[in-house]
Structure formats: C-alpha cells, structure tokens
Amino acid sequence: MSLLLFSVLPFSCFAKEYKLILKDHLFYPAEIIVPANTKLKLLIENQDSTPEEFDSFDLNREKVLYPNRSSVIYIGPLSPGRYEFFGEFSPNTARGAVLVEGKTDADN
C-alpha cells in the first residue's frame, strides 16, 4: 500500500527550490549551482513591468513570465554540466545558466 501512495505524490514534493529574479531584463543570480541527480523547482519572480519568456534549449523548457508575478518551472534530475537559459524577448541581456555539480550514478 505504501508503494502506491509513493507513486502518486506530486513531483513538487521532492524538488529542491531555487529562486531567480528577473529585473531590468536581467536574471539574478545569473548562475545557480545545483547538485546532480536532483529534481529542482525554479521559482522565478518577474519584477519587470513587461512580460518575458524563459527559454532553454538545454533544459527543454519555455514559459511566459508575466510582469510582477512569480512562475514555477520544474527541471531535473540533471547530469553534471552547464545548462543555459535566456529571456526570449531580451536575449542579449536576460541570460543565465544552471551549473550542475556532483557525481552521476555512473561515477559510483
């Protein structure tokens, strides 16, 4: 019975949260360091008065970030490496990366 309960728990129960702020068309912090093989919850607060679209080919994610609102994006678990993201409406300034550090299952 407990296995059945475990299988229906939402992804968010196991995700570690990281906060990003979008202000003046820049992500703060521009880089976040996270552990490998961990489910992540990115809480992104858009403090600008205009919308932005979070976009990442590396993370296979895109989401509209409405002005003066917070949005959530779930990612992972990820292997060690650098995963870049950007704001589609401000690609020259709104740039960032998720830096994944640690061992993979293959390293054990």
From TrEMBL:
Residues 16-100 form the EfeO-type cupredoxin-like domain. Pfam families: Cupredoxin_1. InterPro entries: Cupredoxin, EfeO_Cupredoxin. This is Cupredoxin domain-containing protein.
